[in-house]
Design brief:
The protein is of the alpha/beta class and about 200 residues long. It has helices at about 15-25, 30-40, 45-55, 60-70, 90-100, 115-130, 140-150, 155-160, 175-195; strands at about 1-5, 25-30, 80-85, 110-115, 165-170. A five-stranded parallel β-sheet has the order 2-3-1-4-5, with helices on both faces. The structure holds BIS(adenosine)-5'-pentaphosphate and magnesium ion (MG).
Length: about 200
Amino acid sequence: MLIVFLGPPGVGKGTQGSRIATHLKAAHISTGDMLRQQVEDGSEIGKKVSSILEAGKLVSDDLIVELVESRLSQEDAKERFLLDGFPRTIFQAEALDSFLAKRNQEVTVAMLLVADKEEILRRLMARAKAEGRADDTPETVAQRLDVYHNQTKPLVGYYEQLGKLQRVDGVGTIGEVFDRLLKVLDESTSASESTSS
Ligand code: AP5
Ligand code: MG
C-alpha cells in the first residue's frame, strides 16, 4: 500500500496522515517534518532550507528527491508508506514513479484532501497562535497557497490521468475525515488488488 497525500497547506495532511499510517502500519513520511527537523538540528541541509521554508517557497526538487529516496530505502518504507507533502511538483512525481518502478512498485492511490480557503485560513491562523510555526504568518500562508496552486495542483491531473486520484472532503471533525479516508482507501485497495490479480 503506497499512498500519496495531496492537498493545500492546512487541509489536514499531517493530522490524517499520521493517523492513517498508524492504522495501516505504514511509514508516515512528511517532507515538511523532515525539513523542519533538519532546521532544528542545524544541519547543512537545515541551513540551506530554513529561509526557503520561512518564505513559503519550495526547496529544490533535487534536494527533496534525494532526501525522500534515502528515506524510502529504509526497511520500514519498503512495502507500506504514506507520503505527506511529497510529491509537490510534476518533476517530483515523475522521480517517485521511476524510483518505485526500479523496485517493481507503483503508487497505489493519491488521496486529495479538499477544504475551502476560509477553513484553511482559520486552521492555520489558529495554529499560528497555538504553536507559532515559522511559516504560519499571513504573508507566508498566502505565498504557500500560491505555490500550491501554481506548482502542486497540476499533480491532481497527473494522478487523475493514471486513474489513481481520490478526492476526499477534508472538512468536519478529525474523526469524520479519518472515517471518510479509510472508506476510500479500503475501496481503492480492493480495486487495485482485483486489477493486479
Ligand atoms: P509542509 O510541512 O508539507 O506544509 P504544508 O503543505 O503547507 O501543510 P501543513 O503542514 O501546514 O498542513 P497539513 O495539510 O499537514 O495540515 P495539518 O494536519 O497540519 O511543508 C512546509 C514547507 O516545507 C513548504 O512550504 C516547503 O518550503 C517545504 N517542503 C515540504 N515538502 C516539500 C517538497 N516536496 N518539495 C519542496 N519543498 C517542500 O492541519 C493544519 C491545522 O489544522 C493543525 O493545527 C491541525 O490541528 C488542524 N486541523 C487538522 N484537521 C482538522 C479538522 N478536521 N478540523 C479542524 N482543525 C483541523
Ligand atoms: Mg503538514
